[in-house]
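Design a sequence for this backbone.
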């Protein structure tokens, strides 16, 4: 049924390699099948102006794709002089998602910027960026705790994301590009390790879907999130 030969509820192979860059306070390379994303977390002793003297920290994100991350070369957005609407939407999603797993008062007045750079794309890049971004964030916070700069762990739970969709009439988990490009329904599910929903994005790309089909997608997402959380925990233990 699936071009890859995977079962309907089978994830792509997941690997998370940590400490892959020298300078970032937290870093990892997450590979979900043929989608590879470099995630780094940078600590700064400042917050945006609207948070000054609030006692609250901030987590934000930036996202980008290398020119040959896809089948054909894309022009660098820096060369074009502006970010695409897609890039802006995705990096805001990553930031919102990661903030959902943070106690900002425990973080104190400091900012963590998570950069997610897609090295190779084969579907699900935003989901891989969120999942890997959490690992980079976890590693950066570990350094704060180890140095004694903070005494309470501000990370309250895992944050992970996975895509689900309806392909050839069947609900499937973790779409790769051939599936994503042909799916009748496409969705991204961002959840905590405890199974709480952070954000859902689901749309009828070629055909509408029913409540029962949505429930099937939700069940697949819960299974996938559990596997991703297990991989995150193994990478950061």
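Sequence:
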């Amino acid at each position: 049924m699936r071009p890859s030969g995977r079962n309907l509820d089978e994830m792509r192979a997941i690997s998370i390699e940590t400490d892959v860059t020298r300078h970032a306070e937290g870093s990892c390379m997450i590979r979900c099948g043929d989608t590879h994303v470099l995630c780094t977390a940078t600590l700064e002793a400042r917050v945006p102006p609207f948070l000054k003297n609030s006692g609250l920290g901030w987590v934000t994100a930036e996202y980008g794709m290398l020119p040959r991350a896809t089948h054909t070369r894309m022009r660098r957005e820096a060369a074009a002089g502006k970010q695409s609407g897609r890039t802006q939407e995705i990096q805001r999603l990553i930031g919102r998602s990661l903030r959902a797993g943070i106690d900002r008062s425990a973080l104190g007045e400091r900012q963590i910027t998570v950069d997610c750079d897609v090295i190779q794309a084969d579907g699900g890049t935003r989901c891989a960026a969120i999942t890997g971004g959490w690992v980079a964030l976890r590693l950066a916070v570990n350094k704060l705790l180890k140095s004694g700069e903070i005494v309470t762990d501000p990370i309250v739970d895992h944050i992970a994301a996975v895509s689900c969709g309806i392909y050839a009439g069947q609900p499937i988990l973790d779409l790769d590009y051939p599936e994503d490009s042909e799916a009748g329904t496409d969705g991204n599910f961002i959840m905590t390790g405890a199974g709480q929903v952070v954000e859902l994005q689901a749309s009828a790309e070629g055909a509408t879907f029913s409540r029962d089909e949505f429930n099937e997608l939700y069940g697949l997402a819960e299974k996938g999130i559990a596997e991703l959380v297990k991989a995150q925990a193994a990478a950061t233990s």
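Helices lie at 77-80, 85-99, 104-107, 125-147, 177-180, 211-236.
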